[in-house]
Design brief:
With 232 residues, the chain is α/β, with parallel strands linked by helices. Helix content is 37%, strand content 16%. The two termini are 22 Å apart.
């Protein structure tokens, strides 16, 4: 995890060194600053096309209290840069309560068939069947509004929620997960030539994110621990 955040790094180092850790959190963060180990902001590349004829659903999660797993899923698509093909696209679905990525597909295009494949993975994670307690939240991109995607959601009684404008904070958890996968795990590695080279890198990143990386919002537990109910 070469670009993990400073607070998480402090927690992990402290858990290894124990009493041998001779500096507090603030001094540790100052050390990172002094050695220029703080990562600058990245530029973004937009993947959302909301200029389409499909119905756009209202926002159901604004000010909603998230209390359990599979209550709210957030979906998003982000680009992965490659030297030969320029871009491939990572279709993601994340459980909000646990922050666990429960569906992901790395694909050559933004086509909805790949977004649907990620959705099917998430549905299997949740046990399939009737998921009437689940809300699916996304931006208003054509992939999430098209007939095939909406049909999959409705066939499992999943409620549909969408952002109300182009403000990224309306889908903040999804945006944050995108940033972690790309900036913390993929950015430090050599740029892959194509999708085939990027595939194992993304799989490893998602596994590390789900099972190894502690989250401040989860009291330093991993997403998998929270999603699976394993606090050991």
């Amino acid at each position: 995890m070469p670009i993990i955040g400073g607070l998480k790094l402090y927690y992990l180092v402290s858990s290894v060194l124990g009493d041998a850790m001779d500096m507090g959190r603030d001094k540790f963060l100052c050390l990172l600053h002094r050695h220029k180990l703080i990562i600058p902001p990245r530029k973004t590349h937009h993947t959302t096309n909301s200029n389409h004829v499909y119905f756009k659903y209202p926002n159901l999660v604004k000010e909603l209290s998230i209390c359990y797993v599979n209550q709210v899923w957030v979906s998003d698509i982000t680009y992965i840069y490659t030297t030969d093909d320029k871009f491939c696209y990572l279709h993601l679905i994340t459980d909000v309560f646990s922050r666990m990525i429960i569906g992901f597909v790395l694909a050559p295009t933004l086509e909805a068939v790949y977004t649907i494949e990620a959705l099917e993975q998430a549905i299997r994670h949740a046990g399939g069947g009737n998921l009437c307690g689940t809300i699916h939240h996304s931006d208003r991109g054509v992939q999430y509004c098209c007939d095939d995607y909406i049909l999959r959601l409705k066939s499992h009684s999943i409620r549909i929620s969408m952002t109300e404008d182009s403000n990224p904070t309306d889908n903040g958890v999804a945006e944050r997960v995108n940033g972690i996968i790309k900036n913390e795990f993929l950015e430090p590695l050599p740029t892959p030539r194509n999708l085939q080279e990027a595939q194992p890198m993304v799989q490893h990143a998602v596994y590390t994110y789900n099972h190894l990386r502690p989250h401040l919002s989860l009291d330093m537990r991993t997403p998998a621990q929270v999603y699976m109910g394993d606090d050991g």
